[in-house]
């Protein structure tokens, strides 16, 4: 399948600003909330690409979404989003809802690790995300590689954005 719409959206300045905002946040909770918004953007991008029409899930005149997150996730699954990606992103959404609707502290790390178990299942031949090494400052003499699980939360979330984007793109290419 042609992936131009998806590629254009994930390489847009808008998406770049949203993703890098995760690194500018002051705490893990804020970084996660920005990550959640970027997941919604990726779901929309998947849907728009399959349908070949952009922005139909957004009311321009009212400047708001007309379909909620879970409905978009269901639509994406119906359009071919692999169930493993749907489950992982659903876990991220459940975490966002727990954060928003609970006075209790929420274990972000634990919930993210639960979602990662689903991400690790698609495609099957990929190595586990926990084994990913992320190179920090690759163009400098301070360059070092850090295992995913040892990354600070904002960098984990940034890495997950890249992984989810790549997995969605792979799913589109294989349609």
Question: Could you explain how this protein is built, in words?
Answer:
This is DUF4145 domain-containing protein. The protein is mainly alpha-helical and 175 residues long. The protein has one domain (4-173). The protein is built from seven helices and four strands. It has helices at residues 4-10, 13-24, 28-51, 69-78, 83-101, 108-119, 153-173; strands at residues 58-59, 64-65, 133-136, 144-147. α3 runs parallel beside α7 (153-173) and α4 packs antiparallel against α5 (83-101). The longest helix has 24 residues, at 28-51.
Largest sheet: 2 strands, antiparallel
User: Order of helices and strands, N to C?
Assistant: HHHEEHHHEEH
Number of helices: 7
Indicate the proportion of strand residues.
Answer: 5-15%
Task: Give the CA-CA distance, first to last residue.
Answer: 6 Å
Secondary structure topology:
Blueprint: H1 4-10, H2 13-24, H3 28-51, E1 58-59, E2 64-65, H4 69-78, H5 83-101, H6 108-119, E3 133-136, E4 144-147, H7 153-173
Antiparallel strand pairs: 1-2, 3-4
Helix pairs in contact: 1-3, 2-3, 2-7, 3-4, 3-5, 3-7, 4-5, 5-6
Sum this structure up briefly.
The protein is mainly alpha-helical. 60% of the residues lie in helices and 7% in strands. The protein has seven helices and four strands.
Keywords:
175 residues, mainly alpha, two-stranded antiparallel sheet, two-stranded antiparallel ribbon, 7 helices, 4 strands, DUF4145 domain-containing protein
